[in-house]
Specification:
By secondary structure, the protein is of the alpha/beta class. The chain has 21 helices and 16 strands. The protein is about 50% helix and about 15% strand. The longest helix is centred in the N-terminal third of the chain and has 31 residues, at about 115-145.
């Protein structure tokens, strides 16, 4: 066989300690480049050097030729080093249980000794065909994933999101302030980071702050910094987030939660590009770009006197409205597969994909918590899944219509509806009890009673 032809042939590693059987098997596969190993060390060395697609493995190898310990050790190392390898184990008379154990540990198939060359050849060629199909699927999946990434990070195939991404790319290299409007969990910070990385400020810092997560009396110090001794606990002069992002981008999430008094100070910065730290009257020039986001209706807040109109127009030079996940057809399934691939490799390699009922449930679900809810559900399902394919039950996405139909009585149906609405409200408010109660139009004590009654976690 010429070297050029050998390079084109698929590789088959035969792990067998019987020299006669080695020779018999080696010459039986003219359509393979055959590599032979007689013990664990040489088998693993050949695996590392040749990276074969298919391996035939005799479990009885020295120094345990009459047992299976050495063969299982080889199998475990192959699965750890190159898990896509198709391993076919040899099973002697009465050793079917060992063969089944090997399959449970990652082997593709088994064959019965004494060897029938033709029968084994069929198994080997079928294994190679499956390996090639899986390799092609991985290649296509990688290609699709690259094509569906926008702004370097965001994965989408929805025209609505592609339009959002193109808008952000277009304004990235300007100095205009950008406001991202969208429900919680739609990816506002991811888009803000994408804007920063697409801009000529990419070498500067990207600093993010959630204005709703910081108490009002501390927010001014967080944004503008403070001088030593400005208040109790101010033991040293500390720059604020605006200064930290100088030359870069500051992302103000939930900007609607900035109190009115502080809105005046932020407006001055946007107008004059100077700041004053808390406890100081020194004006410090700062070249920071502001990108902000909120899920609130700022125009309604302006009408109520809770948000300054002049600040709104300074922050909203460009407004980008981000569609919810339910309004991005196909993205839920695309993102779910991406999350599954990520978390399965980290937490449960046994999981390979979604069952058909899971894909149907993902596509049909309204995703009130948007991408954040989807990611959390997939992550939890991957950890808890007992099978190779994640089911709708693993995702806790039973058909709501089916639930109502199967309800025993009106009381049960009402409880199921209550559970659904409460859970959706909790998802939208990210578990915040006050916001959830307000969204549901009930008091906090009533919500606590319902959470306890329905055993809902917060």
């Amino acid at each position: 066989m010429t070297d050029d032809r050998a390079k084109q042939l698929p590789k088959l590693l035969i792990v067998e300690d019987d020299a006669g059987l080695q020779a018999q098997l080696k010459w039986a596969y003219e359509d393979f480049e055959v590599i032979v190993a007689g013990d664990r060390a040489s088998a693993i060395a050949a695996l590392r050097l040749e990276t074969p697609d298919v391996v035939t493995l005799d479990l009885g190898l020295p120094p345990d030729p009459d047992g299976t310990s050495e063969g299982f050790a080889v199998l475990d190392e192959i699965m750890a080093l190159k898990p896509d390898t198709k391993v076919i184990v040899a099973s002697g008379h009465g050793a079917r249980e060992s063969a089944l154990t090997a399959i449970a540990r990652g082997a593709y198939d088994f064959y019965q000794k004494p060897v029938d060359i033709d029968a084994l050849g069929l198994i080997v060629r079928r294994a190679l065909q499956l390996h090639r199909l899986e390799e092609e699927n991985r290649r296509l999946a990688s290609k699709i994933a690259k094509e569906e990434r926008v702004l370097g990070r965001m994965i989408t195939a929805a025209p609505e999101m592609l339009k959002v991404a193109r808008t952000i790319e277009r304004v990235a290299n300007t100095n205009v302030s950008v406001m991202l409007l969208g429900a919680s969990g739609t990816g506002k910070e991811l888009l803000a980071r994408g804007l920063h990385e697409a801009s000529d400020r990419a070498k500067g810092e990207f600093v993010a702050i959630n204005c709703a997560a910081i108490p009002e009396n501390l927010l001014e110090s967080e944004l503008f910094g403070h001088e030593k001794g400005a208040f109790t606990g101010a033991v040293k002069t500390t720059p604020g987030k605006i200064e930290q992002a100088a030359g870069g981008t500051l992302f103000l999430d939930e900007v609607g939660d900035i109190p009115l008094q502080l809105q005046v100070k932020l407006l001055r910065f946007l107008q004059e590009r100077v700041i004053e730290r808390v406890g100081s009257r020194e004006s410090i020039p700062v070249g920071t770009r502001i990108v902000c986001a909120t899920h609130q209706d700022l125009e309604a807040m302006i009408g109520d006197g809770r948000f300054r109109e002049d600040l709104y127009y300074r922050l909203a030079e460009i407004v980008v409205r981000i569609p919810s996940l339910a309004d991005r057809p196909g993205d839920a399934t695309l993102l779910a597969k991406t999350f599954l691939g990520r978390y399965a490799s980290e937490m449960n390699p046994r999981v390979r994909g979604f069952a058909s009922d899971a894909l149907a449930a993902i596509d049909a679900w309204s995703w009130p918590g948007n991408v954040r809810e989807l990611e959390n559900r997939v992550k939890r399902a991957v950890i808890m899944a007992d099978e190779k394919l994640v089911s709708a039950a693993d995702l806790d996405l039973a058909d709501p219509d089916e639930q109502v139909v199967n309800a025993l009585n009106l009381k049960t149906a009402r409880e199921q509806a209550d559970r659904k609405v409460i859970r959706h409200a909790l998802a939208r408010s990210e578990g915040n009890i006050s916001s959830t109660a307000k969204m549901l139009g009930i008091s906090r004590p009533t919500l606590y009673d319902l959470l306890k009654q329905y055993d809902l976690q917060t």
